[in-house]
Design goal:
Layout (H helix, E strand, L loop, with lengths): L4 E3 L2 H13 L4 E6 L5 H13 L2 E6 L19 H10 L4 E3 L3 H4 L25 H16 L3 E5 L3 H13 L5 E5 L19 H7 L1 H14 L5 H12 L5 E9 L15 E9 L2 E9 L4
Parallel strand pairs: 1-4, 2-3, 2-5, 3-4, 5-6
Antiparallel strand pairs: 7-8, 8-9
Length: 287
């Protein structure tokens, strides 16, 4: 296994990648907030398959947490993360402090006009402004050839792809399919918040999505009927509260009025107790 180098400053991280580039190496980048799970490890694997060198960042970004959200309690375990990253042969970890990323008198933020106005952006005001800002900073620091993001955070991936295109970042942004637990629950660092009863029932999101796929592939074209069926699965658990369940265009994230012809995105955000979980699936209707 590789010996991982740890960099805590932007300058030191940038210098390492510069040396790699001089030697002709390509760099793959996996941004994370730590507390790694199999989904993160799949990103590292894909980066390792694609590139000569792999950089992972660990930074719990305060700018993407709203008031009353879980910034202070977000799970953190650096030593565990390092062991897992090493098991996937990561070459370097960028582990900056908040002060390194947002020094005194910090004033510059990146904000998209349209994509953040849908799905999670409706209830997490300012979230994607924080995401776009920190990822643009990380792209500037690491200067990767490829960057890898999980498709579980579908809207985040769309925002980052659009930002990279709009701002001419010379990086290829790649989505990696959702990694699921054995029962189908999408892997997330926040799954650790769930009580035993909540964890057992959280799989209802995935079961509802599978039912939606079945209906759409059998020819159902009314998104309201499909959403109602999905909701009935989720609300089979008394402590579930739906933030949203929507069927939209995968490119624009705008709701669709009819399901026909092209693929649609079914996306959901649901609270199980106090824990907010998201999931999605791109579904192709019956021809």
């Amino acid at each position: 296994m590789n010996e991982i180098k740890i960099f805590e400053t932007a300058d030191s991280m940038r210098s390492q990648v510069f040396e790699w580039k001089k030697s002709g190496f390509t760099t793959g980048f996996v941004p994370t907030m730590g507390y790694l799970h199999e989904g993160h490890l799949a990103l590292l694997e894909k980066a390792g398959e694609t590139c000569d060198k792999v950089v992972m960042s660990i930074f719990v970004n305060p700018a993407q947490f709203g008031e009353g959200e879980d910034f202070e309690t977000y799970p953190r375990d650096f030593e565990r993360d390092m062991k897992l990253a090493q098991s996937k042969n990561a070459d370097a970890v960028f582990f900056p402090s908040t002060k390194e990323m947002y020094p005194e008198n910090y004033q510059t933020y990146v904000e998209l006009e349209k994509l953040p106005g849908f799905l999670c952006g409706k209830s997490r005001y300012g979230h994607f402004k924080g995401v776009a800002t920190v990822v643009s900073k990380l792209f500037n620091i690491v200067d990767p050839d490829f960057a890898f993001f999980g498709e579980k955070d579908f809207q985040q991936l769309a925002v980052i792809k659009q930002m990279a295109k709009d701002l001419n970042f010379p990086v290829k942004v790649k989505g990696v399919p959702i990694v699921r637990e054995k029962d189908g629950l999408a892997m997330s660092s926040r799954n650790s918040y769930l009580s035993e009863d909540e964890r057992k029932n959280a799989v209802l999101i995935y079961k509802g999505i599978l039912r939606a796929r079945e209906l759409i592939q059998k020819g159902e074209s009314d998104p309201e009927k499909v959403k109602a069926e999905t909701k009935s699965f989720v609300l089979g658990y008394k402590n579930a509260e739906i933030d949203y369940i929507t069927i939209c265009d995968p490119d624009t994230l705008e709701d669709v009025s009819v399901i026909e012809g092209k693929s649609v995105l079914l996306a959901a955000a649901v609270y199980f107790g106090k824990t907010r979980l998201i999931d999605n699936m791109v579904i192709t209707p019956k021809n």
